[in-house]
Write a structure and sequence with these properties.
Radius of gyration: 20 Å
Number of helices: 14
Largest sheet: 11 strands, mixed
Strand content: 15-25%
Shape: globular
Length: 338
Amino acid sequence: MTTQKIAAGGAVALAIAAAPAGATELRFANWLPAQHVLNTTVFPAWIDSLVEASGGEIEVAVFPARQLGAAGDHYDMAANGIADIAFINTGYQPGRFPMVGVAELPFLIDDPVTAETEAFDGWYREYAEEEMSEVKFCLTFNGGLYALHSVEPVVSIGDIDGMRIRLPNRTLANYFGAMGATNIQISAPESREALERGVADAILFPWASLFPFGINDVVQNHLDIDMAFNNFAFVMNQATYDGLSDRAKAAVDSHCTSEWAARISSGWLAVEADGRQRLIDDGHTINVPSAEQLQAFQDAVEPVRNEWLAAAEDAGYDGQAAYDALIEAFAQTPANGN
């Protein structure tokens, strides 16, 4: 039995109608192109395992490419029942999720490896129920490391001044804003057009993810600094979850774990690892900064780190203690020699 049905255009109603008798059909919404690796490989693995664990009580219809709503609306789509499960970029609603927003800090980790994704998800669970109270939180995971991809070469902070950059969240907008950049506030699916039309000069984006969005066709220069990773999550409509049978709830619970967060992240990162070389093979230019230029980018993080600490305090938490706990969780991962 087919457990995943990716609906396209007018096929939405057909996908919903295809659920077998007695099964609960869950609408899984995401805003990524259907050809993105998450939709072709990573999400299907999670879905197939979930369906199997439910003993066929759950079926899943996937609606990619913003079919059910705009990228920034996916959290509210899950909260309001437009979708039963939604894939969200936690940075698309600035200030709404301050604790998970720590993931937006540049140079927080060197590599969003599986172990560090698992550590981050485990750390965030202390805050998720309150911070995402409108939904059932499932899991959160890290995407590929973001580099700056531009029309013209960039190697230093001085090159940033006056640029218009599509940035994925407010923290990075503030980070580059202090260097003189203007943030172009658009979602990932809209970015190619903005770059093509000259509305934006550059984009901060994972290396391999440039390809499914076609962004690699409009930027030829790439700053060789992995500056940040972005954070994503699965969230679920609470009423949908509450209406499931005990077996189906147990299946969902067993797939909303830190271990699954790591598996999803690792499936994505395996593809992202090839992106830089693909660009080189296609004749793109990799611009390598000097040690001093790299240090200047790293030193510029302190103001936005202080902003996050203040936001955590405003949300009622001890920001420094929370930050220290996250860094300690990263330090205990096998990737860091423990």
